[in-house]
Design a protein that fits this description.
heterotrimer; A alpha+beta; B alpha+beta; C mainly beta; A: alpha+beta; FAD/NAD(P)-binding domain; 7 domains; 7-stranded mixed sheet; 25 helices; about 25% helix; C: mainly beta; Folate-binding fold; 4-stranded antiparallel sheet; about 10% helix; globular
Chain lengths: ~950, ~230, ~80
């Protein structure tokens, strides 16, 4: 058996290309252009999935991207929306959320237990007794969820792109097409998107048994093709609206972040289901779904249909069905007066009985298929008069009782909407600048009116952007009859009259929720979960609003709507993730480190060598050996990640005195000075070395992670103070390396003619000279506690200098050393690292930096805060400590807490085993009364072990600093 | 080329492409890559021009300093003017300038010795750029995948300079006709260069383009002038 | 994504900028009370309304002022410090 029709004009399928696929293990054959749902329906498969809660059989509802009960899995691909996604050759589709497939789902037993699963069930049950919760959690994890995650799924990198245009038109139905044409003819660069595989919208399928609309589409397509400035993109979803017209466009391949200058929303409306008992039985579907089956996929939706309607569209659907051989049992019209247009005459002429003021009380299914529907008159109160029911045998029930605007983008753009009683729908009341709406989303339904409304919107958008197109007046005729019925809802004592198909919510659930006090739309949404399923309320919110309005005795407008957040439809995570850029900076010596086997670590945006791997050696050994080389011979480390700033101008010294705590005006050229930077609250935020090159030229360093923000803040201060200075961020322009160790001088001497004697180039001095033929700035620094030269050279000549130093140091056993060894070496010297030994609250006095803070200056950033804080004394102090002999495995680690009398009294900021000293040494914050030398304190290490430490003076190593100041 | 004094921020990345080097202003420049295809530059070529000589300066006196030395100073922020020999003087925001010589210019060599600290209101900016040229018909596709600025709105004649972020990196962008080839020029800090290069060439490869040598991107350039 | 107009570089997506907080006059640290200073350092007004803020265009290093209505999230104007 097949329900595939003979060729239908305008069909989307390609009959010459068969597509083989399986569903729940059975083989089927569809056509290219089919969706899984249409191909299965053509093969007379009517149970396409199971509902979420009661596991009821579900079939085609909308074919418009909200048939969430027909979500399927295809291999690793989850959440495949069977109603809209293209069928592909070889697809192995499985239903989700079932035990044993869609047709034989063993969990359908839950349908019979519905009475025990009231609204709010999950919130109320299972959390008492608490001990049973893990059990229930496992049960529900097994029973719920949509699909099975495949952890072996391929990692897909999907490129994103930006795009720009004048006008974006969302929706290529009659209104959108006319809008795009009008804007395009005015000269605007237009992008026209439609989420469907082909453009045309309702022109393609809401035909009313006539070919006119479809021919109009052909004409419009031709007109568009004549406009090269209009880009037509079917299969593209405008997924949301973000500030200032920023629209993510999603297609099968990627996300495009489009920035149009104006947006026209012509997204149409979602047809809404009627609410009656068993309105979810396979065979009950929206009229537009039946028409999509007919005209897109050439599938006969049913053999005999009952049409339930409240608008002209239902009559068109009846004519469309009849034209393709579907018998129409009757048209039941909710309206007392029936259809005012000529359509009612046409329906009568073809012999379809019309029952005015009638509703469907219930549908009846046998097995998994609709077999009959019971119709009864509607009383004046809108309630069914069940005294004289009429039963119609039918295998299809087609609903056309109303529409809800696809207004998510308008809401997201900040449009205000009002409930319009002439159309019984929400329509835009006030639109933000540059945002336009037309067609059904604007409350305009008659085809001629939609075309004109589109032209109006396109013209207005073009004029808004300054395109020279004549102003025109448009008169959109009001609708003859409301396209939506205010109450397409029928109560039934036995329930199962569904309002939300995603979440299996029936009418009674809303009454219960209101009774329990959740009678605000936002509360009701969260309590009942209406609109929270994958279709996000597209077929349920409007009816929920109508229900709540009637419960509260107010209008739908007063109930209002819930927030419509992006994204409009589900979007694959791979689209959102994009390529995944990994921004990083490399020093000019990167390739040298690579060649030496560097193991990389991240330091802010930089990559730095943590240590240099050696075959057969563990990291701890290597770090120890690298440190030893510096202590015993000479080492070389790349410190090019330090921020490096040039400061020029007559006010340069004054500027530095304002941003750093020390004094600089009196510095002599050729000297350097340690510098600490505070924020306005007196917290230490950065440190570095300031060197004076000449009277009006300083060069200074910042921390690796601080360079960008320090430069930024200095620029801001400069913009306010208007001192005569120029700041240049030369971080990337200079490479820097530190040559350190007792043999540093001997190595350097081979490469420079500079007099390196202690008299000519003493500790903390700065000199400019060629090193290996490259102009360099050399600073005698002592960060690692040995004789050391920090050598700064232009980045493009850095490798040459590095190579020369490594070669010159070969006989002296030079070793490159990484960040890990440097951390150990500086810790042995008790030198702090900002950000490691300080945090976001550390005052200079707490970190032992009192000496660097010169409060006798008139001003520096943070000065007043330091003065205030000093009145109270520090809350904590950074002290050096050592552990009594202890195995490395039980030693505390950074951030372990100092504990006194069961209370936190501080924390470890740095700790390491020092081979040089033969013990663990570290820095810790402790309470101010715990700083007495040799006093013990306890650190809570891993597993709660209390480890005893003692306060000791720093530096731990070479307390007099003789090694870095080494005279000869 | 071991004798070359300077090296490009992309020297390492280029070395993996087996280039033939020529030397420009003391820096090796990849002239031909082993698998340069003739059509690649026409489609989407990315060429390292870091070797071109350049200087930078900023400050309230920078414009006058340049004018006094006969350099055509662009009078609007974020525009550029042309130098003899294909070079460019780009005005970066308001008071900063980037001067780069083309393939046969001599301006930088003339100006550089003068540019020392000390002139009031003139502050030298050391330039250690990763400098690229993007060529070919798909340049815009590369730009829209990496940068949120609409470059199609710019005409070459307007000589616009754009300071923006590209894949997270601060860049200077302008459109130039260099030695007969229309191209987009990109400058970024050299330390961000390898990342930018890797990202751009990766995307370009997907689009059918990729890294190209200088001789492929600029077939009409007079190479002898460079050496 | 919002568009912010840099006075030098023109309209750009806000991702090209860094926010610098509300513009607030610094009291004279030499004469103000501890309380006035602490108020300046620690307290920020969260009252919605029209505020003048610091913004920084990253790629060009441009600090500028933006007058912004935080209720409507609308930038009224931007200009450079004198």
């Amino acid at each position: 058996m097949s329900s595939r029709l003979p060729p239908v004009t305008g069909e989307w399928i390609d009959r010459s290309r068969g597509v083989d696929f399986t569903f729940d293990g059975r083989a089927y054959r569809g056509c290219a252009g089919d969706t899984p749902a249409s191909a299965l329906w053509a093969a007379d498969v009517h149970v396409l999935g199971r509902s979420f809660k009661y596991h009821r059989p579900r079939g085609v509802l909308s074919l418009a991207n909200h048939d969430v009960n027909t979500m399927m899995q295809a291999g690793a691909r989850l959440n495949l929306r069977a109603d809209v996604e293209p069928l592909e050759q070889g697809m192995a589709l499985t239903s989700v959320n079932t035990a044993g497939g869609a047709s034989g789902d063993r969990l359908r037993i839950l349908n019979a237990l519905g009475g025990f699963l009231p609204v709010g069930f999950y919130y109320k049950a299972f959390h008492r007794p608490k001990a049973l919760f893990p059990f229930w959690e496992r049960v529900f994890r097994r029973m719920t969820g949509l699909g099975t995650l495949d952890f072996g799924a391929p990692h897909i990198r999907t490129p994103k792109r930006y795009d720009f245009c004048d006008v974006l038109v969302v929706g290529a139905g009659p209104a959108g097409l006319h809008a795009a044409l009008a804007a395009g003819r005015a000269g605007a660069k237009v992008v026209l998107v439609d989420e469907n595989a082909r453009i045309g919208g309702s022109l393609g399928y809401q035909r009313g048994g006539s070919i006119e609309g479809f021919e109009m589409l052909r004409d419009l397509e031709r007109d568009l093709a004549d406009l090269p400035n209009v880009s037509v993109r079917p299969g593209t979803l405008a997924a949301g609206y973000y500030a200032d017209h920023w629209i993510p466009l999603v297609d099968a391949q990627r996300m495009t972040k489009l920035r149009p200058r104006a947006v026209i929303v012509a997204g149409g409306a979602f047809e809404q289901p009627a609410v009656f008992r068993n309105n979810d039985a396979p065979g009950v579907m929206l009229a537009s779904a039946a028409q999509r089956l007919l005209y897109r996929y050439a599938v006969k939706p049913m053999d005999k249909a009952l049409v339930l309607t409240a608008n002209a569209d239902g009559y068109r659907a009846a004519l469309d069905l009849m034209a393709h051989g579907v018998a129409i049992a009757a048209v039941a019209d909710l309206r007392a007066d029936g259809e005012p247009s000529a359509l009612s005459m046409r329906v009568k002429q073809v012999g379809i009985p019309v029952l005015k003021s009638h509703c469907v009380l219930e549908a009846e299914a046998v097995g998994d298929r609709l077999v009959a529907a019971t119709v009864c008159p509607t009383g004046a109160d809108g309630k069914p008069d069940t005294a004289s029911p009429q039963k119609f045998a039918c295998d299809g029930l087609v609903m056309s009782v109303g529409w809800a605007p696809a207004a998510a983008l308008l809401y997201q753009a900040g449009a205000s909407m009002r409930y319009d009683t002439t159309t019984h729908q929400f329509v835009p009341e006030r639109l933000p600048a540059g945002v336009f709406a037309c067609g059904r989303v604007n409350g305009v339904y008659a085809l001629d009116s939609r075309c004109e409304d589109g032209e109006r919107a396109g013209t207005e958008a073009a004029r808004h952007l300054g395109f020279d197109t004549p102003e025109r007046s448009f008169s959109i005729a009001p609708e003859r009859s409301p396209p939506s019925h205010p109450w397409p809802i029928v109560e039934h004592p036995a329930g199962k009259n569904f309002v939300d198909f995603d979440e299996d919510l029936h009418l009674r659930d809303f009454h219960n929720a209101a009774q329990e006090g959740f009678d605000n739309i936002e509360l009701m949404k969260r309590y009942t979960t209406v609109g929270m399923g994958p279709s996000q309320g597209k077929h349920s919110n409007m009816n929920a609003i109508r229900v709540l309005a009637r419960i509260r005795g107010v209008s739908p407008g007063e109930v209002g709507t819930t927030t419509a957040r992006p994204f409009f439809h589900p979007v694959p995570l791979s689209h959102l993730a994009g390529r995944g850029f990994n921004v990083h900076r490399e020093t000019p010596l990167h390739s040298r480190h690579d060649g030496l086997g560097a193991v990389w670590m991240q330091a802010g945006v930089w990559l730095r060598p943590e240590y240099y791997a050696l075959p057969g050696k563990r990291k701890s050994e290597i770090v120890r050996d690298e440190a030893r080389a510096v202590r015993d011979a000479v080492g070389l480390i790349d410190v090019g990640t330090l921020g490096k700033m040039e400061l020029y101008g007559p006010d340069a010294g004054a500027f530095l005195e304002r941003v750093y705590t020390a004094k600089f005006s009196g510095m002599k050229p050729g000297t350097t000075r340690y510098a600490v930077m505070l924020d306005e609250s007196g917290v230490v935020i950065d440190d570095g070395v300031v060197a004076r090159l000449s009277e009006q030229h300083f060069y200074f360093t910042t921390t690796t992670t601080g360079s960008t923000t320090v430069y930024r803040e200095l620029q801001r201060w400069n913009a306010q103070w208007n001192l005569e200075v120029g700041i240049v961020n030369a971080t990337g322009a200079f490479a820097a390396m530190n040559l350190a160790g007792p043999k540093a001088r001997a190595v350097l001497r081979k490469l420079t003619s500079l007099d390196l004697s202690n008299e000519a180039f003493p500790y903390l001095a700065l000199r400019e000279a060629d090193v290996a033929g490259v102009p360099a700035r050399l600073m005698r620094v002592g960060f690692v506690g040995e004789l050391g030269y920090e050598i700064h050279v232009p980045a493009d000549r850095a490798a040459r200098v590095w190579d020369a130093l490594m070669e010159a140091g070969q006989d002296d056993g030079i070793r490159p050393f990484g960040v890990e060894a440097q951390r150990l070496l500086r810790l042995e010297k008790g030198h702090i690292i900002i950000g490691q030994d300080t945090d976001g609250l550390t005052q200079p006095d707490e970190a032992g930096l009192e000496w660097a803070v010169k409060v006798d200056k008139p001003f520096f950033v943070g000065k007043r805060s330091v003065e205030i804080v000093r009145k109270n004394g520090p809350r904590q102090k950074l002290v050096g400590f050592e552990l009594d002999a202890i195995g490395a495995s039980t030693a505390p680690r950074e951030c372990h807490l100092v504990v006194r009398n069961g209370a936190i009294a501080g924390r470890v900021t740095s700790i390491a085993w020092s081979d040089t000293l033969g013990k663990h040494v570290g820095l810790a914050f402790v309470a101010p009364d715990m700083t007495e030398l040799n006093s013990p304190f306890f650190i809570r290490a891993d597993g709660g072990t209390m480890v005893q430490a003692r306060v000791v003076p720093t530096p731990f190593y070479d307390a007099e600093g003789l090694r870095q100041k080494v005279v000869d | 080329m071991a004798a070359a004094l300077r090296s490009s921020p992309l020297a390492h990345a280029l070395a993996t492409l087996h280039p033939e080097w020529i030397e420009v202003a003391g820096m090796p420049l990849a002239s031909k890559l082993r698998d340069d295809r003739p059509d690649r530059s026409a489609k989407l070529g990315i060429c390292d021009l870091s070797a071109l000589p350049r200087i930078g300066l900023k400050g309230p006196g920078a414009a006058d300093w340049l004018s006094a030395r006969g350099v055509p100073v662009p009078d609007q922020p974020n525009t550029w003017s042309a130098l003899e020999g294909g070079g460019a003087v780009a005005r970066l925001a308001r008071t900063e300038f980037l001067v780069e010589d083309g393939f046969s210019g001599k301006a930088v060599a003339r100006l550089a010795p003068d540019l020392k600290p000390g002139s009031p209101g003139v502050y030298p900016v050391p330039r250690q750029d990763c400098a690229l040229a993007l060529t070919g018909e798909l340049v815009n596709e590369l730009l829209v995948q990496t940068c949120n600025v609409d470059f199609t709105a710019q005409t070459r004649d307007a000589r616009v300079v754009t300071l923006t972020l590209m894949v997270g990196v601060s860049v200077t962008v302008l459109q130039q006709r260099l030695a007969g080839t229309d191209c987009w020029r990109l400058w970024c800090d050299g330390t961000s260069g390898p990342y930018l290069w890797e990202t751009l060439t990766g995307i370009a490869a997907e689009l059918g383009g990729g890294a190209v040598g200088f001789a492929s991107a600029f077939p009409d350039a007079q190479l002898q002038n460079l050496q | 994504m919002k568009i912010l107009t840099c006075p030098v570089n023109g309209p750009r997506p806000v991702s090209e900028f860094a926010y610098g907080g509300e513009v607030r006059p610094m009291p004279d640290g030499a004469t103000c009370t501890d309380r006035e200073w602490a108020d300046y350092v620690f307290n920020r007004s969260g009252v919605p309304g029209v505020k003048i803020e610091w913004w920084y265009h990253i790629a060009s290093g441009t600090w500028f002022y933006a007058e912004r209505d935080t209720v409507a999230d609308r930038v009224i104007r931007t200009w450079l410090p004198a």
